[in-house]
Amino acid sequence: MLKRIIICGVTLLLTAWMLGAQQPVQICAHRGFWKSESAGKAQNSIASLKAAQDNGFWGSEFDVHLTSDGVVVVNHDPVFHLTNVQTHSYNQLTRKGKLSNGETLPTLEQYLEQGRQSPVMLVLELKKQCSREHAEKLQDLCISALKEKGLWDPARVMFISFDYEACKRLARLAPGFTVQYLEADKDPETVHSDGINGIDYHFSAFRKHPDWVRRAHDLGMSVNAWTVDSKADMKYLVDLGVDCITTNQPLELRELLKGREQRPRRQMSQEQVQAWLSRQKPNPAAHTLHPDTLISRNSPYRASKNFGKRIAVFGGSLSVNAESDAAKQIWADLLGAEVVTYGVGGAGFSREQGCTLQRQVDTAGVYDVYVLWASTNDYTNSRECGSWQDYTAFDNYDESKLSTQCGGINYCIKTLLEKNPEAEIYFFTSLRFFGQDAGNNPFSTAPNKTGKTFADYIEGQKECCAYYGIPVLDQFNLQGINQFNVGYYYKEDLLHMNEEGYRRIGPVQAAFLANGF
Question: pTM for this one?
Answer without folding.
Answer: 0.56
